[in-house]
Amino acid sequence: MADPKYRLTMEEKMHLDGNSNSPDGHIIHSRKRVQRNGCSTSVLVFVVVLLSLACISLVIFLAIEKLQRNDEIRSSFCRTVLGTSNSSGNVTPPCTSVQCILASANILRTVDQNVDPCEDFFLHACGGWIKSNPIPPNEPLWNQVLALKKRNDQLLKRLLDDKTVRKRYIVNDAVQKAFLYYDSCTDQDAIEHAKGSPLLELIARYGSWNITNKTWTSDSWNFAETLVRIHKELKLSPLFTLQVKPDLVESSRYVIMIDQTTHTITRDAYLANTSYHYQVRLTDDGLECFEDLLGHITSTWNGKVVLTGDINLIIVSDHDSPFACINVGVDRYLNIVYSSDNPEEQFEHLNSMFKECIERHAPLRRERRDVRNKLKAAIRRARETFTRQALSSNKPKVWRIIHRILKPNQQPLRQDPDRLDSFFACTTGRTLPVSCDLPSCLKEEIESLPDDSPTNFKLREVPHSERFTDDVYKLFEHIKTTPCNEQYYCQQEPLDCLHLMLLEADLNLLVRKAYQQLMSELINLIGGETKWAEHQLKEVFEFEQDLSKLSATANERADRSKVYKLMTLKELQNKTEKPIDWLFYIKAMFQDTSYEIEQDEELAIFALDYLTNMSSLITNTPERVLANYMMWQVVVQLAPHLSEEYRRAFYNYHRVVMGSSGETDIWKKCITEMSRLDNDIGDPLGVIFLDEKFEKKDKESVMAMIDDLRETFIANLDKLDWMDNKTRAYAREKVHL
Fold first, then answer.
1. pLDDT tens digits for 401-443?
2. Residue 463 — φ and ψ, nearest 5°?
3. Alpha helices (H) in 386-467, listed in sequence order
4. Phi-psi category of 663—alpha, beta or left, where left has phi over 0 and alpha has psi -120 to 50?
5. Of 48, 130, 378, 421, which has the fewest beta carbons less than 10 angstroms from its beta carbon?
6. Which of 704, 667, 674, 676 lies closest to 688 in space, CA to CA?
7. How far apart are CA 355 and CA 373, in angstroms?
8. Considering the entire predicted model, what is its pTM?
9. Within 13 A of 77's CA, how many CA atoms are on the CB side?
10. For the segment 7-45, what is each residue's pLDDT rounded down to a tens digit?
């Protein structure tokens, strides 16, 4: 054994360092490399351990910092609201101002503590408010904005009735006019005594009316002058709107804007159950699916019932998808038909019903022929494609419906247990077991269902006088596809889209009927002869329908930049036809101002197609119809301000249109009228409200906040690397405008 006290000689050290040329030197060098590798491994392990410790320390540091930050937030909250603090010696009294107390109480009333926020945050945050704020009988809907408006209206009523407040503004002519407006609007005795005479006097001033005056002739009536007077003096827009606002592109200048008008009822209500409605609206909302629906339920082959069409994979759970559970519902309905004693008879009854309603409604308009052809083509395709799928009568009926989803071409539904379970539940009323091995489990479940037994189901005979949408709606009542018991809205769950579409069509038809009833009632009240006026009112309504067809839909106008067109007055005249002299009209509108209108005046047009087509419609419309339509717009806008019998006619109308079951107080109507954006009397009314509600320091605080926002915005401009210097300078300039 080597002596532990032995020391290496210089030569031995040289050999170990690999400086020797002897063969043994290579061996010694290899040993050294092994020693070095061992050393490197130790160093690497040490570094890894060091980094791990550093990471752990960093995580601990961040966690501590987050806890401290949360603690500071809690301490700040406690100091501000609760009057306590986590820091010793720094207790701040709680906020006990009226605003803080009201805000706290409002939050407590709004929250529903019985609802777990993790289960339904909306009901947790808003459930208390919904429970304590039922929809008032005279309102179609209710929310916090409307509740705030109600409180503001009550405040305005108190101020307008207060004699002390009136004395405060004795030298302010504008505010005095607001008081006079309110007094005239709420003077019930004078209104009841006058009845309809103010409206009749107005009609006489505007050239009389063919509906109330049989001696009326177009010789004494001028279209352009009447249009200007109605626009300028009454602020009504029977054909189009005209406003002066900042330009959409260059907001530093004002420009004359011309747009399509709005109507008393919606575009869909005007067009409901017409050929145009079915061609345009129904096609947009799913005519193809509707055709498939008819194809499913109106096909027979060799006198036997056949199930037509593939099952639509859209099911009840897919509420975001269009036409959820439609075909499932149809198949369920077919299952009921198969269960009857005479399924062929039931099916033939259904088939004949649809044939009759198609034939009955096809001649409504010439354009309806296209819709009829599409429906017939769908039925024909269904018969040709699925004639081999005649169902035998010795199988359980539910299985005959569901077995097809197990075919290879139905893989998406087959591989999705959740969707399949919803499908099964929608069709049978039962749910599949939690662990279900498809398809064997499904087959067992289906086979375990009792054999189909005859039911007392009988399809109600549909009278020929009922309309097309009503026929289909009643079919869906039998199918029972509505998940909310046929309510329009319940617990935020949407109805299936086709049922909702048909329900909406029904509502639109009710609105249209209510509007036509309103027309007849108002004409009777102002002394028009029913038989004499009936035909002319029909002409007025048809003209309104034609205008509605020309109007762009809300979706088409969603992006204002796409419908915006800047052109000169002369260019607009060239694009439209003769009936409207745009230079004469706009000059007359600005006659009382110092602004000069010339042919090169730039206009912002938001409905060029509408204006072009409207001009063509006016050219082809008799002056009698135009005069009747324009005067009707005056009547329907001003009649609600007359005596009780006129207001009652509008109450019946609003009950259908808006769903309100009570009549609005006169004072509330007056304040709403005064607060409209297009009513100039709203400015002095705002002065009264602001003086009562806010102090001078409140305005200073708001202005300081705006200044801070402006300065912060300017400071951030230099940090926007995507903005060049020229654009940045222009942005600064706009901020200071």
1. 334 333 334 443 444 444 445 444 544 445 555 555 544 554 5
2. -60, 145
3. 397-402, 411-414, 417-428, 440-448
4. beta
5. 48
6. 674
7. 12
8. 0.57
9. 6
10. 444 444 444 344 444 444 443 444 444 444 555 666 566
